C-alpha cells in the first residue's frame, strides 16, 4: 500500500531533505536545507552535493545501490563557508520511492556544533525527534554554564582586584598606605631608578583633634590627601604612612631645588584655613627631603632615615619649613616656606 505524504509533513519530519526524480533533478528541498545551501527546484543533484563516501559512479541507479546506508557528503553551494574554505562534511541516507524518484535525508555529523553556529540554526530548524535537538539543548546548557562560570570568574577577579587595592590603600584619604610605599621604594631601588623623596609631618594637627574632635581631624586628613594628590604627576606616589605622616616619591626627579619649591608650595597650601562645620582648622607642615642621586646605592631604609632626620630638623627649627638631607653630612639648614 502506498501512502502519499503531505509536503508540509515531509518538511517537518525531514527539514533537510532532497526530493529528486529519475534524472537526478531536484524536485523539492527542505526548509532547513535551503538555509544551508543555495538549492532550488530544477537543480541537478550533482550540482547541489558531492558524495564523498562511498565512491560512486555516475547515475542515480548507483546511488540507490546504497539505499538505507549512511553516506558522507558535502554541499557544493553551502552558504556560510568557513574562512579557511573547508566545507562541512555531512551525513545522508537515500531511499528509492519508485518511478525512478528518490528521497535523500541530510543531517549533520560530528561537525554539528560548528555547523549549527555557522548557519544560525535553532531547535526549530530540526525535526522534533532529531538527535540534533538534544545536542542543541546540551549546547545551550553548556553555554549557560560557561557563561555563569565566566561571570563568576569576572566577579572573583574584580573582588581580588578590589581586595588587592584595599590592601595597599589608606581608607580615610584614598592615598597609598605604608605597605604600598615600602614596595614602591624597594622596586625603585632594585631598578636603580632616579627619584626624589619627601617625608611630611603635619604641624598643629593634634590641636585640631583636641579642640574639635576626631571627626574634624579625619576631615582635615582627607583634605590634606587632596592637596598632596594635586602636587604630584602620574607615576609619582603619595602615601599616608602614619596618623599625620605622609611620604611623597617623585619619579625621575633629580633636581633638589625643584623638590624644595614643591615642598614650599605644599606648605603654603596646607596653611590655608580648612572649614569644618563652621570652624576654621589651621595646620601646616614640616618636610624632610632626600634624593636617590645622593647615594651610590639608594637603600630605602637609608633614604627614609635621612629624610626623617631632615624632617625633625624642620620641626626643631620652628616648623612650617623644609630641610634637605645628604648622606655622610648633617642636613642643610631648614628653610622656611
Automatic annotation (TrEMBL):
Entries under InterPro entries matching the protein: DGC-Regulatory_Protein, GGDEF_dom, HNOB_dom_associated_sf, Nucleotide_cyclase, Rev_trsase/Diguanyl_cyclase
SMART domains: GGDEF
Gene3D superfamilies xref list: 3.30.70.270, Haem NO binding associated domain (3.30.450.260)
Pfam families: GGDEF
PROSITE patterns: GGDEF
Domain GGDEF intervals: 193-327
Name of the protein described by the UniProt record: GGDEF domain-containing protein
Organism this protein belongs to: Jannaschia pagri
Organism placement in taxonomy: Bacteria, Pseudomonadati, Pseudomonadota, Alphaproteobacteria, Rhodobacterales
Amino acid at each position: 500500500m502506498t501512502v502519499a505524504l503531505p509536503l508540509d509533513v515531509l518538511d517537518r519530519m525531514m527539514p533537510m531533505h532532497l526530493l529528486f526524480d529519475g534524472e537526478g533533478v531536484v524536485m523539492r528541498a527542505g526548509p532547513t536545507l535551503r538555509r544551508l545551501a543555495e538549492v532550488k527546484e530544477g537543480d541537478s543533484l550533482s550540482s547541489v552535493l558531492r558524495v564523498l563516501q562511498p565512491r560512486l559512479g555516475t547515475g542515480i541507479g548507483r546511488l540507490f545501490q546504497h539505499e538505507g546506508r549512511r553516506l558522507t557528503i558535502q554541499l557544493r553551494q553551502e552558504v556560510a563557508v568557513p574562512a579557511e574554505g573547508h566545507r562541512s562534511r555531512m551525513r545522508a541516507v537515500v531511499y528509492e520511492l519508485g518511478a525512478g524518484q528518490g528521497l535523500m535525508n541530510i543531517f549533520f555529523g560530528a561537525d554539528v556544533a560548528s555547523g549549527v553556529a555557522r548557519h544560525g540554526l535553532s531547535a526549530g530548524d530540526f525535526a522534533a525527534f532529531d538527535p540534533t535537538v538534544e545536542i542543541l539543548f546540551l549546547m545551550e546548557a553548556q553555554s549557560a554554564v560557561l557563561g555563569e562560570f565566566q561571570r563568576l570568574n569576572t566577579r572573583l577577579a574584580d573582588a581580588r582586584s578590589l581586595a588587592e587595592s584595599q590592601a595597599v590603600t589608606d581608607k580615610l584619604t584614598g592615598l597609598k598606605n605604608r605597605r604600598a610605599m615600602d614596595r614602591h621604594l624597594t622596586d625603585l631601588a632594585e631598578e636603580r631608578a632616579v627619584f626624589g623623596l619627601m617625608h611630611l609631618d603635619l604641624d598643629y594637627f593634634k590641636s585640631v583633634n583636641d579642640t574639635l574632635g576626631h571627626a574634624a581631624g579625619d576631615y582635615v586628613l582627607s583634605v590634606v590627601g587632596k592637596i598632596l594628590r594635586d602636587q604630584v604627576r602620574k607615576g609619582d606616589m603619595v602615601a599616608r604612612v602614619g596618623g599625620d605622616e605622609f611620604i611623597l616619591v617623585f619619579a625621575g626627579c633629580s633636581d633638589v631645588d625643584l623638590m624644595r619649591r614643591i615642598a614650599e608650595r605644599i606648605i603654603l597650601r596646607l596653611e590655608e584655613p580648612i572649614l569644618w562645620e563652621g570652624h576654621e582648622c589651621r595646620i601646616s607642615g614640616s618636610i624632610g627631603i632626600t634624593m636617590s642621586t645622593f647615594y651610590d646605592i639608594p637603600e630605602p631604609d637609608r633614604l627614609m632615615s635621612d629624610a626623617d632626620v631632615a624632617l625633625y630638623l624642620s620641626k626643631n627649627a620652628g616648623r612650617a619649613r623644609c630641610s634637605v638631607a645628604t648622606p655622610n653630612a648633617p642636613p642643610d639648614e631648614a628653610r622656611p616656606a
